[in-house]
Design goal:
mainly alpha, elongated
């Protein structure tokens, strides 16, 4: 979706996961989209197994076979149309002291996120209550057209999935307001 917006000229840049972006450019006919700049971060994917699983050796052997026979390169070019990145034998996060994960080290970040979430919730409840009270009061008004408008508004937002509403606001409002505001 973001790459399509970039292709349509509605946004200037997109930051995205490299494999996802390369695949989307290849299969999505986004010829006017180009990857520029360097990676902002580098992350590696892992496969989780139960402790002591006999499948670890099998998967490691299969991955080793992919890398030794150049099948990794062929698969990468087939799906992403580019040269694959060089893979380390061990992910950097698993080397040395970084491998010892400590929940206390990220606790301040989690606490900050929880604080922001609680504040947003409080503001939403406060302003939602005010808006809901005004809407309910207007819907029982003696002025019938106002009551009908409130009923239509309420039925519309109750009967429409939230994702559809978000899409309508994101894509619909700019189209409706294009001639007015821009």
């Amino acid at each position: 979706m973001a790459l399509q917006e970039l292709s349509n000229g509605k946004v200037d840049a997109v930051v995205n996961d490299s494999p996802v972006t390369l695949y989307a450019i290849k299969v999505g006919n986004l010829n006017n989209v180009e990857v520029v700049g360097e990676l902002l971060t580098e992350e590696y994917y892992g496969i989780a197994f139960p402790k002591g699983s006999p499948n670890v050796a099998k998967v490691n052997d299969a991955l080793d076979e992919l890398l030794k026979t150049d099948k990794y390169r062929a698969l990468y070019q087939k799906w992403f149309a580019g040269e694959p990145p060089k893979l380390p034998l061990v992910a950097p996060a698993l080397e040395g002291e970084a491998a010892a994960f400590n929940i206390l080290s990220i606790f301040p970040t989690l606490l900050y996120g929880a604080t922001i979430t609680i504040l947003l919730t409080a503001f939403s409840v406060f302003f939602g209550s005010i808006g809901g009270t005004l809407l309910a009061t207007a819907s029982i008004s003696d002025f019938k057209p106002l009551g009908w408008l409130c009923r239509i508004y309420t039925d519309f937002f109750r009967g429409t999935p939230l994702l559809v509403q978000i899409f309508m606001i994101y894509f619909g409002l700019p189209s409706l307001l294009k001639g007015i505001c821009f």
